TrEMBL record:
It comes from Anaerocolumna sedimenticola. Keywords: Methyltransferase, Transferase. One of its GO terms (molecular function) is methyltransferase activity. This is Methyltransferase domain-containing protein. One of its GO terms (biological process) is methylation.
């Protein structure tokens, strides 16, 4: 995230700042910038998670119900089975898994989401362990029957961080435990490279009236689609957010998982177990230790 307050200097528009803000991003200089650290955006994210009908930040809640139901059946998870939900957000999956009697741990490093999740569990008498932690620093051994990473979050990580996480997850699984996650394919975006703009009175990016300049850049060689949002608000503040999505093919997933010692059991078109189709926008994957 890049924040600048000086769009107007001595009554003149700082065009250099504007040009720099919207220039084609460099993939390697824009990694690992958590955009949800901003308190306003964190609140917007929480609202997006909790809206039952939106497919933003989380899948809509009907889909979440279907995912949980299918995964419990598919993985044959019995009461007391130990599961870990990485990037659990406000606990939409943890809550449901816990109601099926599983022994649930949720980990996230959004303070806002974790405190919502903890309060919800307390109020609803659910015994869920919520941990406020960067999952790249976790250190479990042979502990979980299943580990989940949902909403294509693996794709947001750079290759080195992704590889580290895959090793940590492998270590954290019991022998025979399963890692369940989803990943975008190239078909998720109709246009790979595009530019767009819109005005908003107030919205996801800012509580102030603002202009959004949006561009997506396809780094084909790296299989990464980078979405850049430059927000210019009524106070003259210019903020640029870069969001990356690594997209995969089924073949790439099989190779990647093999490299880290997993055996891919199944690849679906989503995490509800829908049959895999060649041009699916997303894949659901179950990989065994
Ligand atoms: C797109 S949301 C998905 C949330 C949840 N899996 C769902 O589908 O409802 C991604 C979540 O991952 C969390 N997250 C991202 N990177 C993380 C990290 N390194 N460690 C812990 N949590 C992380 C974010 O705070 C956010 O809550």
């Amino acid at each position: 995230m890049q924040k600048n307050k000086n769009l107007i200097i001595n009554g003149n528009m700082n065009m250099e700042l504007l040009l720099n803000s919207v220039k084609k991003p460099d993939l390697y200089s824009t990694l690992e910038e958590p955009f949800w650290d901003d308190p306003y955006i964190a609140q917007q994210m929480l609202e997006a998670h909790l809206n039952p009908d939106w497919d933003a930040a989380s899948y809509n809640h009907k889909t979440i119900d279907q995912i949980v139901e299918w995964q419990i059946k598919y993985l044959n998870l019995k009461k007391g089975a130990k599961i870990l939900d990485l990037g659990c957000g406000p606990g939409l999956y943890c809550t449901r898994f816990s109601r099926y009697g599983l022994d649930v741990t949720g980990m996230d490093y959004s303070g806002n989401s974790i405190s919502y999740a903890k309060k919800y569990a307390e109020t609803n008498d659910l015994n869920i362990q919520y941990i406020y932690q960067d999952y790249l620093t976790m250190d479990y051994s042979d502990k979980f029957d299943a580990i989940f990473l949902i909403y294509c979050d693996l794709g947001a990580l750079s290759d080195s961080r992704r590889d580290l996480l895959l090793q940590k997850i492998h270590k954290a699984l019991k022998p025979g435990g399963v890692f369940v996650f989803d990943a975008f394919t190239r078909f998720n975006w109709e246009q790979q490279s595009m530019r767009n703009w819109y005005m908003s009175e107030s919205g996801f990016w800012s509580p102030y009236p603002h202009l959004v300049l949006e561009q997506t850049v396809d780094f084909e060689a790296e299989n990464v689609l980078l979405r850049q949002y430059t927000i210019i608000d009524s106070r003259g503040e210019v903020t640029t957010y870069n969001l990356r999505d690594h997209y995969y093919t089924k073949q790439n997933i099989l190779l990647l998982m093999k490299r880290y010692g997993y055996h891919v059991q199944d690849v679906w078109s989503d995490l509800t177990g829908k049959d895999y189709e060649e041009n699916t926008k997303c894949m659901g994957i179950a990989a065994k230790k």
